[in-house]
């Protein structure tokens, strides 16, 4: 009879009891609407590693692991591959594309895109337009001169 009691106290029995249902989906750079991976694991970290390996996530990919029993969510970022390494991450807001947020300040800094590429493109297009007008005018005068030379 003690044999059965000892078998119930083994680590296999204990591990079965502590396994929890989890679900995971990507949050950045691609955002998935549905849960991509569901299963059981002992910890959210173990399930996150499993999800990263199964889905072959790239470095810097972010995802959420949802505990289906308690309703808790944890966010992770892939920091390395072969073997996969993950670190906890902060959830990104929909309008946050990776820029740091100034949390808790009343006058938050507004993100303004860099205007230098726009100025460079406009100035290049202006140069091309001027050169095209000069080249067309030169060809017109050249054809006029050639026509006068040939007696036409």
Question: What would you note in describing this structure?
Answer:
The protein has a 5-stranded antiparallel sheet, with helices on one face. It contains 4 helices and 5 strands, in the order H-H-E-E-H-E-E-E-H. The chain is 41% helix and 21% strand. The termini are far apart. With 152 residues, it is α+β, with helices and mostly antiparallel strands. Mean pLDDT is 78; it is low at 1-11 and 97-108.
Largest sheet: 5 strands, antiparallel
What proportion of the residues is helical, as a percent range? 40-55%
Number of DSSP helical runs: 4
Number of strands: 5
- Spatial extent as radius of gyration: 32 Å
Could you tell me the strand content as a percent range?
15-25%
Oligomer: single chain
Unreliable runs:
1-11, 97-108
SS content category: alpha+beta
Strands side by side in the biggest sheet: 2-1-3-4-5
Overall tally of structural domains = 2
Strand-and-helix sequence, N→C?
HHEEHEEEH
Instruction: State mean pLDDT (0 to 100 scale).
Output: 78
Task: Tell me, briefly, the overall form.
Answer: rod-shaped
Ends distance: 122 Å
């Amino acid at each position: 009879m003690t044999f059965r009691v000892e078998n119930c106290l083994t680590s296999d029995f204990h591990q079965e009891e502590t396994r929890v249902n989890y679900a995971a989906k990507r949050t950045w750079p691609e955002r998935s609407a549905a849960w991509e991976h569901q299963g059981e694991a002992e910890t959210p970290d173990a399930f996150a590693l499993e999800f990263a390996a199964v889905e072959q996530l790239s470095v810097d990919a972010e995802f959420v692991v949802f505990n289906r029993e308690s309703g808790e969510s944890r966010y992770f970022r892939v920091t390395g591959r072969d073997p996969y390494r993950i670190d906890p991450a902060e959830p990104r807001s929909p309008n946050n594309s990776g820029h740091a947020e100034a949390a808790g300040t009343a006058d938050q800094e507004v993100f303004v895109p860099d205007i230098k590429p726009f100025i460079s493109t406009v100035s290049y297009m202006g140069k091309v337009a001027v050169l095209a007008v000069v080249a067309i005018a030169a060809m017109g005068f050249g054809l006029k001169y050639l026509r006068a030379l040939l007696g036409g």
